[in-house]
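[Primary structure, fold]
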Amino acid sequence: MRLTEVRFRDRLHGWTAGRIIGDEAAVRIWRTEDGGRHWTSRPLPEVTEAAFDFADAQSGWAAGPSDCQVKEGQSRCRAIAILHTSDGGLMWAPQVSQKSRNADADNEVEAVSAETAFVRAGSRIWTTDNGGQSWDDVSLPDPDASPYRIEFPDGRTGFAAGRDGPECPAKGSVPDRPDADCRVAVWATTDGGNKWNRLSSAPQKNGEWYPADLQFLDDRTGWLLLVNPDTHAAALYATSDGARTWTARSGRLPGIRPYPVRLAFVNEREGWVPLSVGAGPIEGGLMGTSDGGETFQPVGTRTLISVEDADRLDPQTGWIIAMNPKRPEASRLLGTEDAGSRWTDLTPQGP
């Protein structure tokens, strides 16, 4: 397997997305109803990659590039497709296909309830409040805004983090000049995205920095992780008042090589940050904090060379997607019930 995302709603119901090596044409989502002991999967129609999320054990959405053609050895996609399931992932039905010039950009899905979901497709943001019968464009109004991450603790309150400015480069790159008109930005909405406000309280960082992830536990408690590809630095910020103010936390996480790919906090103090090696040849792993991000320590064993994603249900229970050390092009899905001291291999064994 080559897996990309893992999500669990409780100890029994979980999903992971990816491909079977050798079957590159089909992106799949596997589902389990017994905590990962057994898995079933379905290929997703239309899309070539998939971001996904589930609101409960039955209702979920997936989104990815579609209408793709291979030209000169490279795939070019012209649309974003949004898919829906109401049976836990047994069947997936396309709901909408939206033309997009940035269809190959990264996508993100936030499933709030069985009726409400948000999809970020590149810099565009779409929402439904009727289970996907219709979708509305609730993108940021600023044409220079580039949101990289969104978070919706509920159907009304939401946050977006990215960069803003006419001279901002693509995500992962830095501006050509130190004085380029580009800066880190955080936006907030209280009406489900109909109106967005750019927050003056956001960390004052220039365009060399960009958000690697944004996470909110509720409408007040959240974290923002910034990285700087030029200096290889990272900066973690926390808020306890709905992004009105931000407090600097740890500055000791790496910003690149290895890459911090996700924030996975379960309460105000305990969280994980997975580190991916990317192209290597370095070591990543899993970093954990028990003081809200003030300090981090390695979690697990040295076999966690590279961790691509993480999901955590409570302080003891969590799941990660990690590089298979015996076959680096493949992935393992690992679970823990003791905060990462021991891991169980839950990797799906077939379609």
Notes: The chain is about 0% helix and 45% strand.
